Amino acid sequence: MNHKPSLDSTSANWQKDLAYVIDHIRLRNFPKALADLLATQCNVSSILMVTYKKSFKPIILHPTDPAEQSPTLRTYINQAYVLDPLFNAIQAGINPGLSRLIEIAPDSFETTEYYQTCYKNFDLIDEINLIIELDNEVTCTISLGRNSSLGTITRAELNQLKEIYPIINSLVRQFWLSQSQEYVQYEKSEGAMKQALETFGSGVLTRREQEISGLILRGHSSKAIAGKLNISLGTVKVHRKNIHTRLSTSTQSEIFTLFLAHLNELEAAAPSAEATPV
């Protein structure tokens, strides 16, 4: 599949490529075949396929070759994913379908330390996500990244992805039915990560301040936090001031540093997680 992207899903090339993917649906290299198919339908800089399960860290379906996994991607999978807008949208029950990151990210996402220290390193200016519900617990996302040389996705490309989404959805679900057990062995409980978010600032911050600090870490502005918690903007500003006072911080970057230190302490204290079957 080395031909240029085509926006005609009825073309002979599309049908040939689709047949190739179907032939690989019960094989471990299906994700790579599917990524190649998607690259014929939309110009992309990167394609990442991941499964998310509520009580486990994400599992990478593609790319699986360590040589193709950047240090930034490994940081994301091991720790930073919990602050990712896509992960949090899935936790909040986002509907399956097509979604651009810009549509689901908090209003101050680009000011967060997660963005500045992790996401920014992916060097993407647009991200289009195909969200696929595999079962009641597991969601698959196929993230199509675009860097500055490609620009943001065009309307034609977006419409094409929407047109083929039902096909991609069915292919991935069938693949998971036959191959999910191959990936279960890589599941690791999120353990310390989830606990870190729930306990960050415990004993120092009030429960409301803990809640607000979590929203700050995820990229919500004071205005967005006020709307989300149904409190006044002035009240949020008072809470933010109290958070900085109690934590002896003055910037969001310092709060993020404290959060990572808290996480590292929990991970050091936790026993190694073994693979757990579903």
UniProtKB/TrEMBL annotation:
| MF terms in GO | DNA binding
SUPFAM superfamilies according to UniProt: C-terminal effector domain of the bipartite response regulators (SSF46894)
Q: Which domain of life is it from?
A: Bacteria
Q: Which Pfam families match?
A: GerE (PF00196)
Recorded hits in InterPro entries, A to Z, give: Sig_transdc_resp-reg_C-effctor, Tscrpt_reg_LuxR_C, WH-like_DNA-bd_sf
Keyword entries, A-Z: DNA-binding, Transcription, Transcription regulation
Q: Which PROSITE patterns match?
A: HTH_LUXR_1, HTH_LUXR_2
Q: Name one GO biological process term.
A: regulation of DNA-templated transcription
Give all residue intervals belonging to the HTH luxR-type domain: 198-263
PANTHER family, sorted:
DNA-BINDING TRANSCRIPTIONAL ACTIVATOR DEVR_DOSR
Protein name according to UniProt: Regulatory protein, luxR family
Organism equals Neptunomonas qingdaonensis
